[in-house]
Amino acid sequence: MDFNFPLKICCIGLVVVEIFTTTSGEAMETAAKACASAPCANTAPGEDPGEIELRAANAELNEIRASSDDKLRWQTITLFSNSKDPKNQKLILHKESNTEVTLEADKGLLVFRSPKGRNAFQIAPPPGDADNPCPKYQVEIVDANSEHAIVRKICPKYVYGQGHEFKSFDYYLYDRATVMTQRFLLNLSR
Predict the structure, then answer these.
(1) What strands, in cross-sheet order, belong to the sheet with 109-114?
(2) Left if phi > 0, otherwise alpha if psi is -120 to 50, otherwise beta: which for 163?
(3) What sign has the CA pseudo-torsion 62, 93, 74, 82?
């Protein structure tokens, strides 16, 4: 007799994929489209399974944002230039020193705020600028403490013309004592 045990549930677009394993070790996949009926017949509360997962993920992300663990917060949360929610474009870097970073993507600015002052640094042209080879980018914190922050701006591969593409990793250093931000280059060649 074979029993099916769920190994993993993941979402791909609007299709929820469940991967099962049987006692004989064979793996099989079953796919169920997003609910076509209201209420959804395949969940206990009658909700779309994707909505349930999205709500749980947002709750976990809000818990991380509110956490007192600075490193967990800035290692987990990425700021995206195309995010429409202002809450998703702000991150507290160091709670004790009250230092936060905000991505003002509509102006191409990375803004650091602390009780010592405010520093706005241009990291990209405003959206729609003809000279912008990277219309969508993301900002990650590499390291941060009460004195500094190292920030990485990632421009994923973007094709802006036939045979022309752009991809970059830019690094910035924010120094809280001087309230200054500067771009620096890394030599990654071996």
Answers:
(1) 90-94, 99-104, 109-114, 117-122
(2) left
(3) positive
